[in-house]
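Discussion board: Methods & Data

I've been asked by a reviewer to show the raw model output for two of the constructs in my manuscript, not just the figures. I'm not sure how much to include, so I'm pasting the format here to get opinions. Each protein appears as its amino acid sequence followed by a line of discrete structure tokens. Is this the kind of thing reviewers expect to see in a supplement, or should I convert it first? Here is construct A:
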Amino acid sequence: MARPIRQELTVEQDLFARMEARGLETPEIIWELWKVKEKDDPNHYHNLECKLSRWRKHPKFYEAWMDEVRKTVSLKLMAKGLKKILAQVDSDEPWLANKAANDAVNFAKGRIFVEDENRVVVEFADGGSMPVLGTPDQDETDTEE
């Protein structure tokens, strides 16, 4: 009989998910977690590969992986990208400065004016009465052309 799956990730499983989210390859992860190299102990290394494969199937694996991507990877990429755009805005190349300025405006606009862009205004044309909800009555022959 198979062992029941734990509801939560162990510390090692969580660390594994976060390492994978940061782009570490299986040999690097096995070395970091257990200090085993394939050439030194092929059988044990293979067993650890199988263990990692099972861990990827854990219901909480993807949750930890996505948490790491959101918190670490995405923030670092955004910070590096913004730093690059800021440097390019002051470029001596007019086309590069213009492109960076457009990127900066689009980035900022989405954060500064997000509330205004998401607002929906509904107006009632016939004196403020509420419309009748439902679907319009149609003959099926009218729509079959």
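Construct B, same format:
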Amino acid sequence: MNKAEMIPQYDTKLFNEIWEDKDSFLNDYSSIGIPTTISAQSISTLYYLLYSKYGNNPIANYDEEQFKYKIFSVIWQYGPTWEKRLEIQQKLRGLDEDDILKGSKAIYNTALNPSTEPSTSSLYELPYINGQNTTNYRKSKMDAYSQLWELLSTDVTAEFLSKFKGCFKQFVKPEKTWIYVTDLEEDDE
């Protein structure tokens, strides 16, 4: 049986040749010298996300160490925001209908002749009031769900992964010619 396959050749290694597994990625992340800014769970997840998106992509650098610094610099710059946005999205997904229907509340206090002078640069309230008015808002279901829909419609992970695009070569076809490999099986007859 003849088996032939085409193997693309590049001038630089692929992502999955730099880091063959999650553990080597995590080891480099914790020891490369750039401060770690996201949790162990997030960096593990990020490895798999990068592998799924860029695993077979050739790196943009001939210097592999510089490539690693680029990757971990992007994580240092944008990782904490990505992690916080994921946390916020999780909380938004967990809201029940009562939570999303709640609106804002405004409280208006009146203090006639208080014993202390109010400061215009302070956010502290006067300890004495004569009267109070409150306004409570409640959203309609359409407004509440539309607002939640808008907040959840942004894919924060795709936006974050796009930050790594410059670490990889961008082209349509391989740089070098294809190599054809053929494995021939001989019959023992």
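Answer (T.O., handling editor elsewhere):
This is acceptable in a supplement if you add a one-line summary per construct. For B, something like: Residues 2-98+155-179 form one domain.
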